[in-house]
């Protein structure tokens, strides 16, 4: 027996009743009432540490009990069981376990789930979509004045195209080389090269000038960008951004949509660093296939650094820098090119 | 007000206090289990999580000693979310296909928006009860269109004219039609100029149709106080911006800023976040007071005395703790904010509560509620 208040849903008047369960029927008795309701038809309240318990009856009536502890004791004695979710919510141990599981699932999704899903989605996406997306990006770069018509002579452009096509062919015995199209632009980005989805590689005039006397290094740069194209990194990164943005939004979006972009951006940068490592791998492959030591890429980093001015000083950049960077640290990349050169030297 | 009170027998006036009994620790456990299940099910569990959250917050809100109750059915909420999600996906996709497709989709969403708001208001209220009585939203769908028209028209005009201008200026040497330029400018300026009016119209519609039984609310304030509040919010924004951002900006411009660019950028972002939180908390507190101090029905009067400064302090503390704990503090923050907001409310009945009654009704369509959530429209008390 349990004392409770009954509301019929039509009037705000509370009626004092007592509850008991016999078999599969809940009996509500008192204040002129004698109701029998199947236990299965009642929307039972969830156990909580304090506060009111409210059960919903079919037909709009409800039962309220101000004494939560008494309700819980009565419900247990009558054989009503808590659902699993409620048991998890009411135990700190299980809730913390849920937190740990959440962390594991999130890390798993981030490390494997999202990359695998985006790889699958990109694999199912026809290459025409890449080209369309690349076209949109190219238009946007042009519209915003980030890239302007090139000042590089057509002959020099063709020389670079031919040299790259020849070098690229050596890495592909089967001869599939109509993969990328080099396009030259003057740009405020400085010495740089960008791979767009679909196979367009933008090379800035500054980059051509920076490496005017070092075709071998320029080949390495182009191979790196071709690696992005081959891996469809641009498309994967679009899909990953969507995934990880949704994930972060679900997790903390109800607090602040603005804060939710932070983990999304950090996660995206980590994926981007992995893409850069893969692209560096392609660069090393092409250089080796053409009998060039990967160590020549050291020249690129030296010249870029000289062009950029002194490296940023201050202790902060070292620990925080990597989490906030879309590329791995220069030192890491340099070491890799040098190691690749060393391996090659020993093999010879 | 006066003539209403004349008919009430002396001693029948009853003040109901509002108390919030939810605890941060308990909501933390509910929240983390909800989050795990939502992620594991790739979002499908979300309506159940939301229903559980609303039930917890309702059951923790005691009005005159009796808890509110939420009755929403997660299954119909799921249907609503799927529908709203499809609408949103269609909208964001069509914008990428072509300009006309984007404008058509924008018009479609703008055309459906008042209807969605109406359904959301109905769903939320019809599924909230007090002492067994379901609340009700008595507004009509036509009323929703009338209330939201001034909000929708300038936004649609601005977005479509802006897109048109961008397309025209892509052609080199093409001169912009002066009428078009004026249209863009006017539609752009009309958005902030109309915002307080839009808010007032919407709140008048929302609070004017809150119903419990025969009682139907009314917003007694005119648009004037809304414009005054908007000016105050703008001033608070300018002031906090000046006070909090000046230091970091000077620092960023200096030589130290150049050396530690990243640190300064983070500092700037954080300062701006604090500004937004301060202004947001100020606006929430003042708006709650303005709305509820001016909402009454024939026999029920509401009041709100939420003090802005303590509420801002709480919001800023919450922000810092949420960042420091990487989000784990959020459930504690949510319950603390709810407690302060709810316990600032007061309700006065000019009739014994027992004498209130309601015709039974059921409204099950959750589509509007879901769309309201997805499109960032926060509905609730």
Radius of gyration of chain B using CA atoms only: 23 Å
User: Total number of β-strand segments of chain A?
Assistant: 10
Q: Can you tell me the number of structural domains of chain B?
A: 1
> Please, what is the oligomeric state?
heterodimer
Taken in chain order, the helices and strands of chain B follow as HEHHEEHHEEEHHEEEHHHEEHHEH
> Please, what is the average pLDDT of chain A?
84
Helix content of chain A: 55-70%
Number of helices, counting only DSSP H or I runs of 4 residues or more of chain A:
12
Shape of chain A: elongated
Beta-strand residue percentage of chain B? 5-15%
Looking across the biggest beta sheet of chain A, what order are the strands in? 4-3-2-1-6-5
Commentary on this structure:
With 348 residues, chain A is an alpha+beta fold. Chain A is built from twelve helices and ten strands. Chain A has two domains: 2-82, Roll (PH-domain like), CATH 2.30.29; 126-347, no CATH class. Chain A has a six-stranded antiparallel sheet. Mean pLDDT of chain A is 84; it is low at 311-322. Chain B has one domain. Helix content of chain B is 67%, strand content 11%. Chain B has helices at residues 2-6, 24-40, 46-59, 74-97, 99-126, 141-169, 178-207, 223-253, 255-259, 261-292, 308-324, 330-343, 367-374, and strands spanning 14-20, 61-63, 66-70, 128-130, 133-134, 136-137, 210-212, 215-216, 218-219, 295-296, 300-304, 345-349. The chains are: A alpha+beta (348), B alpha+beta (381).
What is the strand and helix layout of this fold?
The complex is a heterodimer of chains A (348) and B (381).
Chain A: E1 2-7, E2 15-22, E3 25-30, E4 33-38, E5 53-56, E6 62-65, H1 68-77, H2 84-90, H3 92-124, H4 127-143, E7 147-149, H5 154-171, E8 181-187, E9 193-195, E10 200-204, H6 205-210, H7 215-230, H8 233-252, H9 257-289, H10 297-308, H11 317-321, H12 330-347
Parallel strand pairs in A: 8-10
Antiparallel strand pairs in A: 1-2, 1-6, 2-3, 3-4, 5-6, 7-8, 9-10
Chain B: H1 2-6, E1 14-20, H2 24-40, H3 46-59, E2 61-63, E3 66-70, H4 74-97, H5 99-126, E4 128-130, E5 133-134, E6 136-137, H6 141-169, H7 178-207, E7 210-212, E8 215-216, E9 218-219, H8 223-253, H9 255-259, H10 261-292, E10 295-296, E11 300-304, H11 308-324, H12 330-343, E12 345-349, H13 367-374
Helix pairs in contact in B: 2-3, 2-12, 3-4, 4-5, 4-13, 5-6, 5-13, 6-7, 7-8, 8-10, 10-11, 11-12
């Amino acid at each position: 027996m349990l004392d409770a208040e009954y509301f019929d849903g039509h009037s705000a008047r509370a009626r004092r009743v007592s509850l008991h369960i016999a078999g599969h029927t809940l009996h509500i008795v008192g204040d002129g009432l004698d109701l029998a309701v199947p236990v299965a038809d009642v929307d039972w309240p969830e156990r909580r540490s304090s506060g009111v318990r409210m059960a919903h009856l079919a037909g709009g009536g409800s039962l309220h009990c101000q004494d939560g502890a008494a309700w819980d004791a009565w419900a247990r004695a009558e054989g009503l069981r808590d659902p699993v979710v409620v048991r998890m919510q009411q135990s700190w141990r299980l809730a913390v376990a849920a937190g740990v599981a959440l962390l594991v699932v999130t890390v798993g999704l981030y490390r494997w789930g999202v990359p695998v899903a985006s790889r699958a989605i990109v694999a199912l996406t026809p290459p025409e979509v890449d080209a369309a997306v690349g076209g949109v990006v190219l238009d946007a770069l042009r519209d915003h004045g980030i890239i302007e018509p090139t000042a590089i002579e057509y002959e020099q452009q063709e020389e670079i195209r031919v040299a790259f096509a020849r070098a690229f062919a050596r890495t592909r015995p089967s001869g599939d080389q109509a993969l990328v199209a080099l396009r030259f632009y003057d740009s405020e980005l400085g010495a740089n090269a960008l791979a767009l989805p679909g196979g367009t590689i933008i090379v800035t005039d500054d980059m051509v000038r920076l490496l005017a006397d070092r075709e071998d290094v320029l080949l390495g740069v182009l191979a790196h960008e071709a690696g992005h194209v081959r891996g469809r990194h641009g498309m994967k990164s679009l899909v990953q951004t969507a995934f990880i943005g949704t994930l972060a939004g679900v997790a903390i979006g109800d607090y602040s949509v603005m804060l939710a972009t932070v983990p999304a951006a950090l996660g995206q940068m980590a994926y981007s660093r992995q893409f850069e490592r893969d692209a560096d791998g392609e660069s090393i492959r092409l250089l080796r296939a053409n009998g060039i030591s990967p160590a020549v890429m050291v020249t690129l980093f030296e010249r870029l650094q000289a062009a950029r001015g002194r490296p940023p000083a201050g202790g902060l950049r070292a620990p925080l820098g990597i989490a906030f960077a879309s590329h791995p640290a220069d030192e890491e990349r340099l070491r890799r090119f040098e190691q690749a050169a060393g391996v090659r030297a020993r093999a010879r | 007000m006066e003539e209403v009170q004349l008919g009430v027998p002396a001693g029948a006036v009853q003040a109901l206090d509002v108390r919030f009994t939810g605890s941060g620790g308990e909501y933390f456990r509910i929240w983390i289990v909800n989050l795990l299940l939502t992620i594991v099910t790739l979002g499908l569990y979300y309506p159940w999580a939301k229903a559980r959250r609303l039930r917890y917050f309702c059951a923790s809100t005691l009005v005159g000693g009796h808890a509110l109750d939420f009755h929403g059915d997660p299954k119909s909420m799921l249907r609503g979310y799927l529908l709203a999600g499809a609408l949103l996906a269609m909208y964001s996709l069509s914008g990428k296909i072509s300009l006309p497709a984007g404008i058509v989709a924008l018009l479609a969403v703008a055309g459906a928006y008042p209807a969605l708001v109406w359904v959301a208001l109905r769903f939320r209220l019809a599924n909230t009860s007090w002492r067994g009585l379901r609340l009700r939203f008595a507004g009509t769908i036509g009323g929703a269109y009338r209330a939201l028209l001034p909000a929708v028209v300038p936004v649609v005009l601005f977005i479509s004219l802006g897109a048109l201008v961008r397309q025209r200026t892509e052609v080199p040497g093409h001169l912009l039609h002066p009428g078009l330029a004026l249209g863009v400018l006017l539609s752009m300026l009309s958005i902030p100029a109309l915002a307080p009016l839009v808010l007032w119209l919407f709140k008048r519609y929302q609070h004017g149709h809150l119903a419990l039984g025969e009682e139907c609310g009314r917003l007694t304030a005119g648009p004037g106080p809304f414009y005054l509040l908007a000016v105050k919010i703008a001033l608070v924004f300018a002031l906090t911006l000046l006070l909090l951002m000046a230091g970091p900006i000077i620092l960023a411009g200096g030589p130290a800023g150049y050396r530690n660019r990243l640190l300064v950028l983070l500092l700037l972002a954080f300062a701006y976040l604090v500004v937004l939180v301060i202004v947001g908390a100020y606006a929430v507190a003042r708006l709650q007071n303005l709305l509820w101090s001016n909402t009454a029905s024939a026999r029920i009067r509401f009041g709100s005395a939420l003090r802005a400064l303590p509420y801002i302090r709480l919001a800023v503390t919450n922000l810092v703790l949420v960042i420091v704990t990487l989000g784990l503090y959020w459930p504690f923050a949510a319950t603390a904010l709810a407690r302060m907001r709810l316990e600032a409310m007061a309700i006065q009945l000019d009739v014994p509560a027992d004498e209130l009654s309601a015709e039974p009704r059921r409204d099950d369509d959750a589509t509007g509620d879901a769309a309201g959530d997805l499109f960032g429209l926060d509905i609730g008390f």
